[in-house]
Amino acid sequence: MAAIFQGMQNILTKQFYATNKSSPPPESEQKKSPFQHQRLPIEPAKTLLEIPSRQTLIKNWPTRMSFSEENYANHCQPLLDNFVEFTQQLPETLTSYYAHTGGLIDHALERTDTALTLVRGYFLPDGSESSPLTEPQTLWIYAVFSASILRGIGKIITEFRIDICNQHGQVSQQWQPYNGSMLSLDSHYQYHFLKPQPDAFKRRNTLLLARQLMPAEGFRWITSNSEVLRIWQALLDEDDRSAGSFGHVISQADADAIARSWQQTAVTDLVDIDSDFAGFLDNVEDRIDPHSHEDNEGKFLADISDWIRRQLESGELLINRQHLFAVAGGLLITSDLFRLFVQNYPEYQALQSMQTAFGSGQGLISAGLQGDLATFIHTQDGTKVSGVVLNNPHLVLPQTFKQAQANGQVQTITAQEFSQQSSELVAVTSAAATVHQKISPTGQLETQTSSSAPTVGRSRFAPFG
């Protein structure tokens, strides 16, 4: 297995070197950002994790995971240290959720905190905070913990160009992530956002970087159980169907974390968040235009997500009817629905198109083979519709909602059921028996066989049914 990982890493490293030259990226490949070329100090894990808001999140994790101090020190703390030293104070996105300095770390920690709550509630439905987990359950919760921390880490390769420099901004080299963290390379770094690349490339890099950042003890524990390893890899690959219940857990936790971030989209909130990192931003209010769309993109995403959720909740909108379609890898939001939203929120009338509104996707919108965002599908009656694919439907789905089936009937389903069926669209299936596997609340693997499978078109973005 180590040889396979090394071979894949060598291939992707060559591709990374080929597409990220030592000279600054062309202006066409750089996103205009108030933080572009921002110079930040390279810091050790202890400094990065001692921020009070981060300590508040992680201090109770050993108890919630039923880990002894020794086990947490051997399996969890090294992963946290490796992760934060690797990501440093990079933002998660350019102008959307967790766009502040250090947003990538904060997003991972808040997602993981919610994921631990959800998975503990799955194992212990009575909600007991003091009841210890069994040994099989602790292995599963470690798999969820580590996958949640490392989710999307491949964006370091695909979305950033990072230059190592001294305190005066003199660049000495471009950082090559597969060679290890920035520590000891120099005193500071500065970053640029790159044009989006295919989502599949990001996920493949996530798998390789996860192996690189996992502590030896933790990785050995994961690989000691082939089913845990399989689901752990599916979680890192953002394959909810293969990951089963735990895929739903992390996707829901991620959606909850993003929604909380969207509540802090005002410029004053952004400045407050960055106040924890005194000295990193000077005169931030002079760099941000509160009237520009880019600086209020989080508000737009929060508004349209909340509006879609309420429309689904009330039954005004149905999945697979007119405006919303279940497709491979997520939920297609049509251009017509965007125009309907703008009618209800006239302050967004200045946005010219769906693609303009969603910017570069900020990791929420699935990018195609060329990094493009627009998607076209043909509905059951042959109508061609266009829009963008939201890769985490939990951002807009209520607990239950209605969906039209291929036979014309309308069915009420849950967000978890939708997540699993949407993932099934990635592969073409037949009417032959299909095997479904899930983890029981006791931590055991259960297998169920179904004689029917959904009918799926052969296009990657074919609608469900």
Q: Topology of this protein?
A:
Layout: H1 2-19, E1 39-41, H2 45-49, H3 52-58, H4 61-64, H5 69-75, H6 77-87, H7 103-123, H8 135-150, H9 155-158, E2 160-165, E3 171-174, E4 188-193, H10 199-213, H11 216-223, H12 226-236, H13 240-243, H14 245-262, H15 267-274, H16 284-287, H17 297-314, E5 324-327, E6 330-334, H18 335-344, H19 354-357, E7 375-378, E8 384-390, E9 400-404, E10 410-414, H20 415-424, E11 434-439, E12 445-450
Antiparallel strand pairs: 1-4, 2-3, 2-4, 5-6, 6-8, 7-8, 9-10, 11-12
List its salient traits.
alpha+beta; 4-stranded antiparallel beta sheet; 20 helices; Hypothetical protein af1432; about 475 residues
Could you explain how this protein is built, in words?
There is one protein chain. With 465 residues, the chain is α+β, with helices and mostly antiparallel strands. It folds into two domains: 2-287, Hypothetical protein af1432; 308-450, no CATH class. It has helices at 2-19, 45-49, 52-58, 61-64, 69-75, 77-87, 103-123, 135-150, 155-158, 199-213, 216-223, 226-236, 240-243, 245-262, 267-274, 284-287, 297-314, 335-344, 354-357, 415-424, and strands at residues 39-41, 160-165, 171-174, 188-193, 324-327, 330-334, 375-378, 384-390, 400-404, 410-414, 434-439, 445-450. The strands form four sheets. The protein has a four-stranded antiparallel sheet with strand order 1-4-2-3. Helix 7 (103-123) packs across helix 14 (245-262). It is globular, with a radius of gyration of 22 Å. The chain starts with a helix and ends in a 15-residue tail after the last strand. Mean pLDDT is 75; it is low at 13-35, 266-295, 424-438 and 447-465.
